[in-house]
Amino acid sequence: LEPKVDLHAPDKQDCEQLLLDLLLAGLRQMNPEDRLIFKLTMPTQPNLYLPLIAHPCTMRVVGIARRYSLEDDCKILTQNDCIVASFSRGLKEGLHISQSSEEFSAALNKNCEAIFQCSRKPGVREMQRIRIR
To answer: How would you write the pLDDT of the chain (133 residues) with one tens digit per residue?
Structure first.
């Protein structure tokens, strides 16, 4: 499921809260064995989507980059527990047709590593803290 919140909406934070409330209401109506993956714009308030992540019908929450630099998007992502990156723009950052094969590969590897590091799955203790919140 991929609902979008306008990045430039003056009331973006209110829109995100409304979206969360509606998604949780929908999840409460689902069969317990059903599962969803959500692809959401990174929230203004860190960890806003924790209740969604903790719901048993949620398999995964994927964060869409806010269209900043890869470094800035990774910083935002690391403020949000258990969300993995969907940073297609960030993956392409710094790649140019004029690069040699080695330069291109090095830049691509650097971007992949940055996205991997900011998306790393939390450990068991962190997951327990999230479920308690």
So the answer is: 899 888 889 999 999 999 999 999 999 999 999 999 999 999 999 999 999 999 999 999 999 877 778 998 898 888 888 898 888 888 899 999 999 999 999 999 999 999 988 887 665 556 656 555 5
Please tell me which residue in 4, 39, 93, 121 is annotated as part of the active site: 39
Active site residue 39: yes
Whole-model pTM? 0.79
| The Cα angle at residue 36 between residues 46 and 14, in degrees rounded to 5 | 35
